[in-house]
Amino acid sequence: MTAYLQLLKGYADSLAALRAPVSDSDLVAYCLQGLSDEYAAFATALRTRMGVFPVTAAELHNLLLSEEIIIEDRKQLNLELSAPASAFAATPTPPSSSHGGTRGFQHRGRTSSYRGNSRGSFNSVPSRPRIQCQICERQGHCAIDCYNRMNHAYNKAY
Questions:
Q1: Cα angle: 54, vertex 58, 63; to 5 degrees
Q2: Structure confidence at residue 149 as a pLDDT band (50, 70, 90)
Q3: Which residues form a coiled coil (predicted)?
Q4: Inter-CA distances, 50 with 24, 26, 78, 86, 114, Å
Q5: pLDDT band for position 104 (50/70/90)?
Q6: Cα dihedral value 20, 25, 30, 31, nearest 10
Q7: Residues 6 or more apart from 30 whose CB is under 8 A from it?
Q8: What does the DSSP 8-state code read for residue 24?
């Protein structure tokens, strides 16, 4: 990102030397136009803001460097989250002894309906903690999705 910004600054300086300076707002607009698709939401937000609060080239430089860090962190997080899933999907599962052990084996005779403690003891993948709402303290959703988020009359019971 720094190289891209330095390139644009070089162009602006060259035009200024030729007595055709580029305004900050034009430089910001050109910069936003040349960003990759990863920065689309960022560019849209800045274009919207520019109508009310103009952005200088120096501010844009700092904002773009911050956005670059956020994008890189998001990519790293996506890699970390997808790696276990892809490893799990690519790992062949051996036949389970609880299902007969061999292919084609069918259990004949009496079967027991007792399944023991079925609290997920067979699951070797650790479960994630369930999300808890900060408004109603119920599990399964977060505050942004809470039904009572905009209900000013809601008073959670303590």
A1: 80
A2: confident
A3: none
A4: 11, 11, 31, 42, 67
A5: very low
A6: 120
A7: 8, 22
A8: H
Let me know: does 31 contact 47? Beta carbons within 8 Å.
Answer: no
pLDDT grade, residue 70 (50/70/90)?
very high
Cα distance between residue 112 and residue 64, in whole Å:
64
pLDDT for the residue numbered 79: 80
In a 3-state reduction of DSSP, which class is residue 139?
A: strand
Measuring CA to CA, how many Å separate 16 from each of 19, 23, 30, 139?
5, 10, 16, 59
Burial class (CB in 10 A: 0-12, 13-18, 19+), 46: buried
- Amino acid occupying residue 51: G
Distance from C-alpha of 141 to C-alpha of 129, rounded to nearest angstrom: 12
Whole-model pTM over 0.90: no
Q: Does residue 27 surpass a pLDDT of 80?
A: yes
How is residue 7 written in tokens?
């390139």
Nearest C-alpha neighbor of 58 from the set 10, 8, 14, 24: 24
Where do runs of H (alpha helix) occur along the chain?
2-17, 24-33, 40-50, 57-90
Tokens of 84: 């276990």
